[in-house]
Amino acid sequence: MGGRQRHIGVEERRARLALRHRLAAQARAKTPEEVAGSLVALHGTDPATVYLAIGARLADAGGTVPEVERALYEERTLVRMHGMRHTVFVFPTGLAAVVHASTGLAIAAKARAGLVKDMVTGSDGRLTAQWLTEVEASALAALARRGQATVGELTRDEPRLKERFTYAAGKSYESLQPVSSRLMRVLGVEGRVVRGRPLGAWTSSQFRWAVAPPHPELPPAEAQSELLRHWLAACGPATEADLKWWTGWRVTDLRRALSAIGAVAVTVDGGATAYVTAGDEEPAAAPEEPWAALLPGLDPTTMGWQERDWYLSPGLRPALFDGSGNVGPTVWWNGRVVGGWAQRPGGEVVWRLLETEDLGQQARAAVEEEAARLSAWLGDTRVTPRFRTPLEKELSA
Asked: 358 in helix, strand or coil?
């Protein structure tokens, strides 16, 4: 970009986040599809995160569970599938082909090669690549007949899925692995199967599988450009480090995609270069009113950037993250994380502010209102994050 780069400071970045991520009251969505479209991807490693993240952004949170189930399992306008960094996300179905071609193909090739290598080695050559091809074809045919099925149901149709092989023989983490679980993960990354309805309630992590609906095969470079355009529109400005972390791509692929979409360089606080989509350099509007939000563990906003100092004080991280870098439930006030929350065994939603400054009565009242809103739609459901963090453990005790 010729001339001096525009500077987008912390306050403007927080204003963009409030409106584009549907967190300010004026920006709340009417449907789960609107939320997913605004965020591009919802973390799905913890099934509850999808519902909690959507519920926090709906104008009417009372219908969160039936509306998300409608979108995921009835109309299939949202799809749960592997995406960036070999992580499970929920995407708008219209982006499935883009995600698969931009990210899934490379991951899938490595996943399949790893399975074949582990399986052949761990069975002393008894289980071969050709054998796997026959078994997966049979399993996919059985899945198509059933519509949806658990792994257990598929093994009754195709007993060879029960075969096991030794993984990491001689290592401290040696284990016997069933072909079934590894194969379904590979087929998921390849975009050939998707997760269907859970076996239990919406918080369950046990899913049925279904044959993935067909989608067009896109050129990977074209798909990468399209995915990056969507994400920058939602999360720009973002630095190259943010982009590489979120996508998991090689730097060469990332820079090619930035060039292809005509991304515009700007500066952010600290002097770093960041990027926005072409035409998005103009000053962003601010929310009409101050806002609070209670976001779940692994929420896509909290996990959206690698460089987080502009919305998350480093001093708060030990209480809010686990040892692997997974964030727990967070309390937000006007575009920054100020504390955490949890649900006690009796169902009560409790929270604590961690900021050293006094945020004032308005902030406390707004957070209390959000906690009451969350409690109302959770009802009798009890939610325990898959990744427990120090503050969440303390508050939920």
From this structure: coil
Give CA–CA dist 367/236, Å, rounded. 27
Residues 44-68, mean pLDDT to the nearest whole number: 96
Residue type, 181: S
pLDDT tens digits, 269-297: 989 999 999 999 999 899 999 999 999 99
Strand ranges inside the chain, DSSP E = 7-8, 42-43, 78-82, 88-92, 164-167, 175-178, 193-198, 207-211, 238-239, 264-268, 273-276, 292-295, 330-333, 336-343, 349-353
Q: Given this model, what pLDDT does residue 117 score? A: 96
Amino acid in the structure at residue 105: L
Alpha carbon distance 383, 347 (integer Å): 9
Two tokens, residue 58 = 């709906």
pLDDT tens column, 231-264:
999 999 999 999 999 999 999 999 999 999 999 9
Whether 105 has a pLDDT exceeding 70, the answer reads: yes
- Which residues lie below 8 Å from residue 133, measured CB to CB, with a gap of 6+? none
Q: Name the pairing type of β-strands 336-343 and 88-92.
A: unpaired
CA 45 to CA 43: how far, in whole Å?
6
CA atoms within 13 A on the CB side of 307: 19
With beta carbons less than 8 A apart as the criterion, state whether 341 and 350 touch.
yes
Which residues, listed in sequence order, are joined to residue 229 by a DSSP beta bridge?
none
How many of the other CB atoms lie within 10 Å of CB of 209? 22
DSSP letter for 218, please. P
Strand, coil or helix: what is 317?
helix
